[in-house]
Write a structure and sequence with these properties.
The protein has 493 residues and is mostly helical. The strands form 3 sheets. It has a two-stranded antiparallel sheet. A two-stranded antiparallel sheet has the order 2-6. A two-stranded antiparallel sheet has the order 4-5. The longest helix is centred in the first third of the chain and has 26 residues. The radius of gyration is 22 Å and the shape is globular.
């Protein structure tokens, strides 16, 4: 276990980050909102004294508040969709054009800021995991302590899962240093500048954290914004479907736990996105918003994707629209993409201004739309993938269950290879613009093959020769390497 100050790891700039309020989410303020009466020696924020049940709840609220920031309102979808065959950058600018053309370099501001955002999540969770068990306030029961640590362990696992998928080997930070003194500087200082740990070690820790979470979180919660056993089982299924080599037996087991966990598909696909059916029976984990910009609980992602106010990001691709049309998948296409006439507003090389597509899964212009991060259909299709790869029957039944909801005919492939491609396509159309497509292509080893064959509106190959194997990982941010000489760079950058 490494002991280091997570803020310093991600750069001193992390200290300038603010934490949004969690009103109506956990009904607690983040710890950053507390007065100096909670500070330790000489009002040093590194020596906060956590002594009460209220402070424990506030620490956990700080962990959850990360889900309401820019990382999950914009970058989560940029990373999962814009890099794939489902979307173009949309807006201009160096950072996103690099994503669009597979020309990302180590100075890309998004690559830098997501490193910071994710290590801030880690640091917030470490503060909970290290400190809450030490609180002796009798108002904080042992059962609630276990639950708080379990929820923080899930959130830390989520952060590391994103880190390892984006950057590969990353420093594994599991503790915090509260105070550096003359007596311990020789021990602590070198640990503030750690080397990268292997992906295997990071995945081991992710699974350890998720097992801790599974043992401590509740089965149900007041809304889908809290971590429950269903969310933990879902993330475990994703982890085992991503770590190489894929363990399809465990994927199948954890998908079963989700499917049998009391969730059910909504009867109408559009109900998932009409913001009248939030926290539904299909949702497993869902970021909660109420539209209140003053408390940081408004969802500004709608402005990013619907272009309300300025040119937006993540333009649906010609290739994805063609895939919907080839399948005659009218219901999911109309729920996922909205076409508008933007003549006079802006131009785009990929689409005519008279029929310009927008992402339509986040659509409430009052900024109250929740964001679904996990839902049942994903894990029904992931189980189908596992059954197919294990050579077991039943994959077609699961796929047809998902297709039946949107009035598509059943499929009946005769080979494993045929079913593999059908599941890949079905996941693409069912889960478009949910931050999943790029990571599906990565984990199945299909990214280069698929992207080499993506065509634009005129039938031209858009990415031929652009996606080299080393570009499947992001570079380590140069700013971080300037701060820490122990951070090596990924090959090719």
């Amino acid at each position: 276990m490494k002991k280091l100050n997570g803020y310093l790891l991600a750069g001193v700039a992390l200290l300038t980050f603010t934490v949004v309020s969690c009103e109506d989410f956990l009904d607690k303020d983040p710890i950053s909102n507390y007065s100096n009466s909670t500070l330790g020696v000489d009002n040093n924020t590194d020596t906060l004294k956590y002594t009460t049940a209220e402070q424990a709840e506030a620490l956990l609220a700080t962990c959850y508040s990360n889900f309401r920031g820019e990382l999950f309102q914009l970058d989560y979808f940029v990373n999962g969709d814009m890099q794939s065959d489902d979307a173009y950058a949309g807006a201009s600018g160096t950072e996103f054009s690099q994503f669009d053309n597979f020309s990302i370099d180590a100075t890309n501001k998004n690559v830098e800021r997501d490193w910071k955002y994710l290590y801030k999540m880690v640091t917030d969770c470490n503060t909970v995991i290290v400190n809450v068990p030490k609180i002796t306030d009798q108002a904080l029961t042992d059962a609630r302590k276990k639950e708080i640590v379990a929820e923080a362990s899930f959130i830390r696992a989520w952060a590391y899962f994103d880190l390892v998928r984006l950057y590969g080997d990353v420093p594994l930070v599991l503790d915090v240093v509260t105070t550096i003194t003359a007596d311990n500087v020789a021990e602590v200082y070198p640990l503030l500048y750690p080397k990268r740990d292997s992906r295997e070690l990071v995945y081991d820790q992710i699974i350890t954290d998720l097992n801790t979470a599974l043992d401590g979180v509740p089965v149900t919660a007041p809304n889908k914004g809290y971590v429950t056993k269903g969310a933990v089982n879902a993330l475990l299924a994703r982890v085992y479907a991503t770590r190489q080599p894929i363990d399809y037996t465990k994927v199948n087991d954890y998908c079963d736990a989700v499917i049998n966990g009391g969730y059910s598909l909504l009867s109408n696909y559009d109900y998932l996105w009409d913001f009248q059916h939030e926290n539904s029976s299909e949702a497993i984990f869902e970021i909660q918003y109420d539209g209140n910009w003053n408390t940081g609980t408004g969802n500004w992602a709608v402005s990013m994707f619907l272009g309300t106010g300025w040119k937006k990001f993540n333009t649906p691709s010609n290739d994805l629209v063609a895939a919907f049309d080839a399948e005659n998948d009218v219901i999911r296409k109309n729920s996922s993409i909205k076409f508008e006439d933007v003549t006079g507003s802006w131009t785009d090389a990929n689409w005519p201004t008279s029929t310009y597509p927008f992402i339509y899964k986040i659509r409430d212009e009052a900024s109250t739309s929740n964001i679904i991060l996990m839902r049942l259909a994903d894990f029904i299709l992931l189980k189908a993938e596992a059954l197919n790869e294990l050579g077991l029957p039943g994959a077609d039944t699961l796929v047809n269950q998902i297709r039946g909801r949107v009035n598509l005919p059943s499929v009946s492939p005769t080979t494993k290879e045929q079913m593999r491609l059908i599941i890949e396509k079905e996941r693409r159309l069912e889960l478009a613009f949910e931050g999943i497509r790029w990571f599906d292509l990565l984990r199945t080893g299909r990214a280069i093959t698929v992207m080499e064959n993506v065509r634009g509106g005129n039938g031209e190959l858009l990415y031929a020769g652009k996606l080299q194997p080393y570009k499947l990982l992001w570079p380590i941010p140069q700013e971080q390497r300037d701060l820490n000489s122990m951070l090596t760079q990924n090959p090719g950058y």
